[in-house]
Amino acid sequence: MQFQLNTDSNIRGDERLEDVAEEIVTSALGHLTGRLTRLEVHLVDTNGAKGGADDIRCTIEARPEGMQPQTVSHGDADVAAALRGGSKKMRALLDSEFGKLARR
């Protein structure tokens, strides 16, 4: 599985952040990562330097094998919280989608 992190100009997307993001997202998805070909994570600071509540937006796109890409977004106060929230949403979405396939 490939992992790609994209950030805007207000979030410093260095190697350390990529490692942290990959750890948070893949650990939250658990066994589901084996069914994915690629994960793309986009982090955006919606308010820039102004700050504010829930101004970090995390968008995660997962590409399951043989299926259309699935996307979720989550806004939170800091990068780690946004990553955790987005990961929880993605896990719920993938559990639902894979569950539908299993019932067929």
Give the overall form: elongated
- How confident is the prediction overall: mean pLDDT? 92
Q: Describe the strand arrangement of the main beta sheet, using strand numbers.
A: 1-2-3-4
Residue fraction in strands: 25-35%
**CATH homologous superfamily, by name?**
Ribosome hibernation promotion factor-like
What structural class should be given to the helix and strand makeup?
A: alpha+beta
Protein name: Sigma 54 modulation protein / S30EA ribosomal protein
What descriptive keywords fit this protein?
single chain; alpha+beta; 4-stranded mixed beta sheet; 31% strand; elongated
Description:
This protein is α+β, with helices and mostly antiparallel strands and 104 residues long. The chain has one domain (2-103): Double Stranded RNA Binding Domain. 38% of the residues lie in helices and 31% in strands. The chain is built from two helices and four strands, in the order βαβββα. It has helices at residues 15-29, 79-103, and strands spanning 2-7, 36-45, 56-64, 70-76. A four-stranded mixed beta sheet has the order 1-2-3-4, covered by helices on one side. α1 runs parallel beside α2 (79-103). The longest helix has 25 residues, at 79-103. The two termini are 26 Å apart.
